[in-house]
């Protein structure tokens, strides 16, 4: 049911963990629906220098989280903002139909983390 | 890689003895049991013998057994067939919130078509209260349908008491016994059951065959019309290899039930206790002891999600199942676990292991060795576990 790439990211997820003083944090989902994704960003200038994630959820939830962290590392925040959930799924070689709506939220978590970063920046100014 | 199958409540392997006898009904004894000639007479006789084998396992007379394509069809035949037969008498049906979908969906279909449905709750162990059934009974109640043992948490229901109640009120009583057949004794007389669903592939028989016990004198309207086979209750040329295999599987189940149960209860408790001892924040779902099927283990592992557990176990060759939403195909986790009062996030982290004849102590040791590592890995990834780690540090 999952592609090899999904299973690879599920088995060896990239960038798992927390961050001490993140520049931005974004969380989506809730325990009731069975998926929670949290993304931490370390941003220097406009560049995403480091990214970490923690996810509670199914194979697709873990794999999309891992995939999105790999996709954004080193990108500018503007570049990261245009990454969609669909693009993450595509990068994994696709997801089962039933997973597209419930467990494919990693890009949303990323965008929320960037939003959090921007909010903090504004407050500083 | 070691392969450990612990999903026998989903399906079982066909016993080699069963498979061997089925084979002859594909290639040698292929006559249609309705035919007059010798080829037909030969299979007709075998058909009746299989019917007798099924009947014996549940304490019925062989003429009370109707073969179907499986448990789902038998449930449909029992419920729709009774509703149709008694629609002039009444329109009220009682069932429970932990039934298999084959029962629940069928009842809900009737509800959409003019019947009244009462779905009674269960307690936190997944057991139906006889009092709740009593309270639900109305003058126009025509059918009570309750499972014998639950497929997810293994809880055994007070069937004899509910049967007595149904009998006192002259209400038809249907029991889905797909999960209990061959695991714990069934006697339709002692349990006051009018209709009973059984299936082949959960007892080391083939898929695609089941049966409905219909007590003598109880009327049901058929779903499938045609040549009038199975006493006009279920038309269509009989699935002879399947029926022969199911009959043989019932015979073997009768012989092996006590030994199987004794062995599996030991393995069940070893697995269940082992998980609780080795992993923190685990909840056992369902009853412990005699009210639980000999082969069922169900636990919720907090802060992790069921499908992730299944995938991780599968990569190590271990087959289990889960009540998480991701495995149910809907957004909600198991209706059984929710019905028992579990909150969503704990239901999402449920794991079911169902034991079978071939499982060994080594299988259980292997699971107990691997599962804690899997849980540890997933928890380290889980944002829900953060608070636990942090509170531990503090």
UniProtKB/TrEMBL annotation, chain A:
SUPFAM superfamilies: SufE/NifU. This is Nitrogen fixation protein NifU. It comes from the Bacteria. Pfam families: NifU_N. GO terms for molecular function: iron ion binding; iron-sulfur cluster binding. It comes from Desulfosporosinus lacus DSM 15449. Residues 1-123 form the NIF system FeS cluster assembly NifU N-terminal domain. GO terms for biological process: iron-sulfur cluster assembly. Coiled coil: none annotated.
Automatic annotation (TrEMBL), chain B:
Its EC number is 2.8.1.7. [2Fe-2S] cluster binds at residue 326. The active site is at 326 (cysteine persulfide intermediate). The modification N6-(pyridoxal phosphate)lysine is found at residue 202. GO terms for molecular function: 2 iron, 2 sulfur cluster binding; cysteine desulfurase activity; metal ion binding; pyridoxal phosphate binding. GO terms for cellular component: L-cysteine desulfurase complex. GO terms for biological process: [2Fe-2S] cluster assembly; amino acid metabolic process. It is found in: Cytoplasm. Residues 4-367 form the Aminotransferase class V domain. InterPro entries: Aminotrans_V_dom, Aminotrans_V_PyrdxlP_BS, Cys_deSase_IscS, Cys_deSase_NifS_bac/arc, Cysteine_dSase, PyrdxlP-dep_Trfase, PyrdxlP-dep_Trfase_major, PyrdxlP-dep_Trfase_small. Pathway: Cofactor biosynthesis; iron-sulfur cluster biosynthesis. Belongs to the class-V pyridoxal-phosphate-dependent aminotransferase family. NifS/IscS subfamily. Homodimer. Forms a heterotetramer with IscU, interacts with other sulfur acceptors. Master enzyme that delivers sulfur to a number of partners involved in Fe-S cluster assembly, tRNA modification or cofactor biosynthesis. Catalyzes the removal of elemental sulfur atoms from cysteine to produce alanine. Functions as a sulfur delivery protein for Fe-S cluster synthesis onto IscU, an Fe-S scaffold assembly protein, as well as other S acceptor proteins. This is Cysteine desulfurase IscS. It comes from Desulfosporosinus lacus DSM 15449. The gene is iscS.
């Amino acid at each position: 049911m999952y592609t090899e790439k999904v299973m690879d990211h599920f088995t060896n997820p990239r960038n798992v963990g927390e961050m001490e003083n993140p520049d931005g944090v974004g969380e989506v989902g809730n325990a009731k629906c069975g998926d929670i994704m949290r993304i931490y960003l370390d941003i220097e200038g406009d560049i995403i220098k480091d990214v970490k994630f923690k996810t509670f959820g199914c194979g697709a939830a873990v794999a999309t989280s891992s995939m999105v962290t790999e996709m954004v590392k080193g990108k500018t925040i503007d570049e990261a903002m245009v990454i969609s959930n669909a693009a993450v799924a595509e990068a994994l070689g696709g997801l089962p139909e039933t997973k597209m709506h419930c467990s494919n939220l990693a890009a949303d978590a990323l965008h929320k983390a960037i939003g959090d970063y921007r909010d903090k920046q504004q407050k500083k100014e | 890689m070691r392969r450990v199958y612990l999903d026998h409540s989903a399906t079982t392997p066909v016993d080699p003895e069963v498979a061997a006898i089925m084979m002859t009904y594909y290639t040698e004894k292929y006559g249609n049991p309705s035919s007059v000639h010798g080829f037909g007479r030969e299979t007709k006789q075998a058909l009746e013998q299989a019917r007798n084998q099924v009947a014996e396992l549940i304490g019925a007379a062989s003429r009370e057994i109707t073969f179907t394509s499986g448990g789902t069809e038998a449930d449909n035949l029992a419920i729709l067939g009774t509703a149709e037969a008694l629609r002039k008498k009444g329109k009220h049906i009682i069932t429970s919130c932990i039934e298999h979908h084959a029962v629940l969906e069928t009842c809900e279909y009737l509800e959409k078509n003019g019947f009244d449905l009462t779905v009674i709750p269960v307690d936190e162990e997944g057991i139906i209260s006889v009092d709740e059934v009593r309270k639900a009974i109305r003058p126009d109640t025509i059918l009570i349908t309750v499972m014998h043992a639950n497929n997810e948490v293994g809880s055994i229901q007070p069937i004899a008491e509910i049967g007595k109640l149904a009998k006192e009120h002259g209400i038809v009583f249907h029991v889905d016994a797909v999960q209990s057949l061959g695991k714990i004794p069934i006697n339709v007389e002692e349990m006051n059951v009018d209709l009973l669903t059984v299936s082949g592939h959960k007892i080391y028989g083939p898929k695609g065959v089941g049966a409905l016990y219909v007590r003598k004198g109880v009327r049901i309207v058929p779903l499938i019309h045609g040549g009038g086979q199975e006493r006009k209750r279920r038309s269509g040329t009989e699935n002879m290899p399947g029926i022969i295999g199911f009959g043989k599987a019932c015979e073997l189940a009768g012989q092996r039930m006590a030994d199987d149960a004794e062995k599996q209860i030991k393995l069940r408790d070893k697995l269940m206790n082992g998980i609780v001892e080795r992993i923190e924040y685990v909840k056992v779902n369902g009853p412990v002891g005699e009210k639980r099927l000999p082969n069922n283990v169900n636990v919720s592992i907090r802060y992790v999600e069921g499908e992730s557990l299944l995938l991780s176990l599968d990569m190590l060759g271990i087959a289990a199942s889960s009540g998480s939403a991701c495995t149910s195909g809907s957004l909600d986790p198991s209706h059984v676990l929710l019905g028992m009062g579990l909150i969503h996030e704990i239901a999402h982290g449920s794991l079911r292991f169902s034991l079978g004849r071939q499982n060994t102590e080594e299988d259980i040791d292997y699971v107990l060795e691997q599962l804690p590592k899997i849980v540890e890995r997933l928890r380290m990834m889980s944002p829900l576990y953060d608070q636990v780690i942090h509170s531990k540090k503090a």
